[in-house]
């Protein structure tokens, strides 16, 4: 009898421990994001592209996205709401995102992959009933099969943050509707609602009541994803809804993504412990376009020479144009035209090899090397001088072998503004500290973190 009682007590303790462990793993508040990591997958992983194909795809996506970023700024400078182009179109370009994160929606949870995007705000995926749906990996979410789905009314605060919401007399005023038209031709129309989402790669975190777009009428291309998770500064983003004040990412090099994972971090895990010094620069805000993350770039060095670039070239202007954006969805850095022209001249002067005149795909400056050993070609050091921080880039973060005996500079002309792409951030842990309004970065072996 004593043995039986002991066994019962043991079983009860085991049951209580299991319940406690489950509670700790599936935390249901935003506090869960104080210590969380999420594995990221590149959008082209597992798609068997050749190296030239992969480079063409990634650079062209970067150029298209950079054009979109410039268009948003131009709209803002003209007095147009930067989230709207016409009555039913907004300036977002999800098809040009570079990294996917695994999440799940509803109760019971339906897994799907979504594009991580620091350049937009809304969280959304496709939903039933599907009037028109994109061809994506995941089945559309069925709200009728989830016990935690709840439509948002027009009077809700999040509804007011949605462009083109349900204020029209033809809409049901008890429900909030959104209509998004994207810069790459993708579109989504549906209901704004709240739902329980599950995040995390090892530890799973369930977050209830998260506002999202439930798209019933969609078109275009999500580039291998089944939705988007916005990490911008506006109220609709994951960061804003959960009050997350600190997050970081670490991207593995482009040509290693098939075998090595990139990672997204929250809370204490976002703190940097890198191989080199930790550098920090202020984050800036653009009142005309509050979604984006801006930094102050003061100058550029190529080789041993600081380029003679006017101070005004990188400045964020009062009308909302110009400036320098740090973006997860743009692969390659684009420089304002005057800075790009100076950089091209400096590279040509230093490298002293013939410039390739024939078509080099998306690359604007390429050199013909004497042998296939492009790694032996001496190239100048490239340094971005941010306010309070000098980012000296490793060679592989700005030079790329495009084809045999063709070595290209991995930056491009971005017209009126600049964007720091993620290839220049590869094998760096990059921390966004929204409490202190600081951006920090340090060298890291991203697949080992």
From TrEMBL:
Keywords: Aspartyl protease, Glycoprotein, Hydrolase, Protease. One of its GO terms (molecular function) is aspartic-type endopeptidase activity. InterPro entries: Aspartic_peptidase_A1, Pepsin-like_plant, PEPTIDASE_A1, Peptidase_aspartic_dom_sf, Plant_Aspart_Prot_A1, TAXi_C, TAXi_N. Pfam families: TAXi_C, TAXi_N. One of its GO terms (biological process) is proteolysis. The active site is at 117, 327. CDD domains: pepsin_A_like_plant (cd05476). GO terms for cellular component: extracellular region. Residues 99-442 form the Peptidase A1 domain. Belongs to the peptidase A1 family. This is Aspartic proteinase nepenthesin-1-like. It comes from Ananas comosus.
């Amino acid at each position: 009898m004593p043995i039986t009682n002991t066994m019962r007590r043991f079983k009860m303790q085991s049951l209580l421990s299991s319940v406690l462990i489950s509670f700790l793993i599936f935390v249901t508040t935003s506090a869960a994001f104080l210590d969380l990591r999420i594995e990221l997958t590149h959008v082209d992983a597992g798609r068997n592209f050749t190296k030239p194909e992969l480079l063409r795809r990634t650079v062209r996506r970067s150029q298209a996205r950079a054009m979109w970023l410039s268009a948003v700024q131009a709209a803002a400078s003209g007095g147009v709401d930067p989230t709207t182009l016409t009555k039913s179109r907004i300036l977002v370009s999800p098809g040009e995102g570079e990294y996917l994160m695994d999440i799940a929606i509803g109760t019971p949870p339906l897994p799907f992959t979504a594009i991580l995007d620091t350049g937009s705000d809304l969280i959304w995926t496709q939903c039933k009933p599907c009037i028109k749906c994109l061809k994506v990996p995941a089945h559309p979410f069925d709200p009728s099969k989830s016990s935690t789905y709840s439509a948002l009314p027009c009077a809700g605060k999040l509804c007011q943050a949605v462009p083109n919401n349900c204020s029209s007399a033809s809409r049901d005023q008890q429900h909030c509707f959104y209509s998004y038209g994207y810069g790459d031709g993708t579109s989504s129309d549906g209901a704004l609602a709240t739902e329980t989402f599950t995040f995390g790669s090892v530890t799973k975190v369930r977050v209830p009541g998260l506002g999202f777009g439930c798209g019933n009428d969609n078109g275009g291309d999500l580039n291998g994803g089944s939705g988007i998770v916005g990490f911008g500064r506006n109220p609709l983003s994951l960061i804003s809804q959960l009050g997350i004040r600190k997050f970081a990412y670490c991207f593995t090099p482009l040509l290693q993504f098939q075998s090595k994972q990139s990672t997204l971090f929250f809370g204490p895990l976002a703190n940097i412990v890198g191989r080199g010094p930790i550098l920090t620069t202020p984050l800036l805000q653009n009142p005309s376009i509050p979604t984006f993350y801006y930094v102050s770039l003061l100058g550029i060095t190529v080789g041993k020479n600081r380029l003679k670039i006017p101070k005004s070239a990188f400045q964020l202007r009062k009308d909302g144009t110009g400036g320098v954006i740090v973006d997860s969805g743009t692969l390659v850095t684009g420089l304002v035209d005057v800075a790009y022209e100076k950089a091209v001249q400096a590279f040509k002067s230093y490298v002293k090899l013939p410039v390739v005149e024939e078509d080099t795909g998306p690359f604007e400056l390429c050199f013909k090397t004497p042998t296939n050993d492009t790694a032996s070609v001496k190239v100048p050091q490239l340094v971005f001088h941010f306010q309070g921080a000098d980012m000296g880039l490793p060679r592989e973060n700005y030079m790329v072998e495009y084809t045999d005996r063709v070595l290209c500079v991995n930056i491009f002309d971005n017209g009126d503004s600049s964007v720091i792409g993620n290839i220049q951030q590869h094998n760096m842990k990059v921390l966004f500290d929204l409490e202190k309004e600081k951006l920090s970065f340090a060298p890291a072996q991203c697949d080992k973190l």
